[in-house]
Specification:
The chain is an alpha+beta fold and 402 residues long. The protein has one domain (2-99, 119-360, 386-401). Helices cover 17% and strands 28% of the residues. The protein has helices spanning 2-17, 54-58, 149-162, 281-289, 305-310, 378-381, 389-401, and strands at residues 28-29, 33-44, 64-73, 82-85, 95-97, 122-128, 140-144, 178-182, 199-205, 211-215, 227-228, 237-238, 246-254, 260-264, 294-295, 314-329, 340-341, 344-358. Strands 2, 3, 6, 7, 8, 13, 14, 15, 16 and 18 form a 10-stranded mixed sheet that branches. Strands 5-4-9-10 form a 4-stranded antiparallel sheet, with no helix packed on it. Strand 9 (199-205) and strand 10 (211-215) form a beta hairpin. The radius of gyration is 23 Å and the shape is globular.
């Protein structure tokens, strides 16, 4: 009963976003199956284990396309089997949706914050806003120490409470009676660089009704985020990305004292990792009004000089938030007196992002073929834990609890 209630609530959200909300007083059942497709375009630093060209990385090269497929059904099968047949233009063939096996929980972390000679104190310096200079009151300093860990945690909690993101609940193991996903241990092939989602899609299996939907030319992979300025030391900018609803930029680095230095394009303080790569269209619009997300018309956001002084080397990420495509079957009956028996709902959501490094000379990280090369030094062979790991652990815990 609980599963059906959760599925019905999720269906209501999907149908509202698709403009197909049930008429007032209309009885609905289902959906039997819920299917989410997450469409990502990534550039810059590689998301997988493949080699990369550092020079292309600095301007957002090395484009990768990826999909995450998640199917949840209220039907069961002794040996669950399902697959997604995409258009021929994707270049992958049928993508098997595998039901994951139960895995034991990972052992508890034995990480202990390193001694710094100052009571184990770790600080996060938070800057925010586009422009050559920072506003008053910056940076916001959050301090976490072994002497008083609750204080830093409460500061982080207050920061996250001030800027909230509506949680999305995609299909997951245990949410329905049967679950399948791709990529998985059986299949994790790469999407070809010229792969396209345009055309007819069919999901078929022994625990789900057939799910058929069609994506148009404006529902394909988003274009990559192509940076301007940063490769030659200029102000941060990017070319407009088709279909983008808004943008968000952030950096994370550290200084010689071991402080974590964070900057975001938000007009208000936001922590690194607080804004996910994918937001619902409603959240994008709300966060634009709050000054957290940059409007779709934005193509420039200079990083303040104080940030680059505080962390001469840092990681930069720029996200272009895409829209959604929502489908349901069968169509809603015209009569409110007729029960709407929903077989399936589908959500396709989009994002594009680039990750690169600022302040680093990447030329010495590549060999003659442009492939990455590890630089081994006595320090790198036996390196002590990063002092900021304690702060990252607290930050990650807070994000997971939201």
């Amino acid at each position: 009963m609980l599963r059906l209630t959760c599925s019905s609530a999720l269906a209501a959200v999907l149908l509202l976003s698709a403009g197909q909300a049930p008429a007032q007083g209309q009885r609905t059942t289902g959906p039997v199956a819920t299917y989410w497709v997450t469409v990502r375009t990534s550039s810059g630093l590689p998301t997988g284990g493949a080699g990369f060209n550092p020079m292309a990385m600095m301007s957002g090269g090395g484009v990768q396309k990826s999909l995450s497929l998640q199917l949840q059904s209220e039907r069961t099968a002794a040996s669950p089997d399902a697959g997604h047949q995409p258009p021929q233009g994707l270049g992958t063939g049928i993508l098997p949706l595998v039901t994951p096996r139960d895995h034991p929980a990972p052992p508890p972390s034995d990480f202990t914050p390193p001694s710094r000679g100052d009571g184990g104190r770790v600080r996060m310096l938070i800057y925010h806003g586009c422009g050559e200079s920072t506003g008053s009151g910056q940076p916001l300093v959050i301090e976490i120490s072994t002497d008083d860990p609750a204080r830093g945690a409460s500061q982080m909690a207050a920061l996250m409470e001030a800027v909230r993101v509506s949680p999305e609940t995609p299909p997951s193991p245990g949410a329905g009676r049967t679950y399948g996903e791709w990529p998985n241990e059986r299949s994790s092939q790469a999407i070809p660089a010229n792969g396209s989602l345009v055309g007819d899609h069919l999901v078929r299996g022994n625990y789900t009704p057939d799910i058929a939907f069609r994506l148009g030319a404006d529902q394909d992979f988003m274009d990559p985020v192509q940076l301007t300025g940063v490769a030659d030391g200029g102000p941060l900018g990017w070319h407009a990305v088709g279909g983008a609803r808004g943008y968000f930029a952030m950096t994370m680095g550290s200084n010689e004292a071991g402080d974590m230095v964070v900057w975001t394009s938000s007009e208000v303080p936001v922590s690194f990792g607080q804004i996910p790569d994918i937001l619902s269209p409603a959240d994008v619009e709300r966060l634009i009004r709050q000054g957290v997300v940059l409007p779709a018309s934005t193509t420039r956001c200079p990083i303040p000089g104080a940030v680059q002084t505080a962390a001469p080397e840092s990681m930069l990420r720029v996200i272009a938030f895409g829209g959604e495509a929502n489908f349901s079957y069968p169509p809603r009956p015209n009569s409110a007196r007729e029960t709407w028996n929903i077989e399936h709902v589908v959500k396709v959501r989009y994002t594009s992002g680039v990750t690169t490094m600022l302040g680093m000379d990447m030329s010495d990280l590549a060999d003659e073929d442009g492939r990455s090369r590890e630089r081994e030094t006595p320090d790198s062979r036996q390196r002590s834990p990063d002092p900021a790991d304690a702060l990252r652990s607290v930050l990650g815990g807070l994000i997971r609890r939201r």
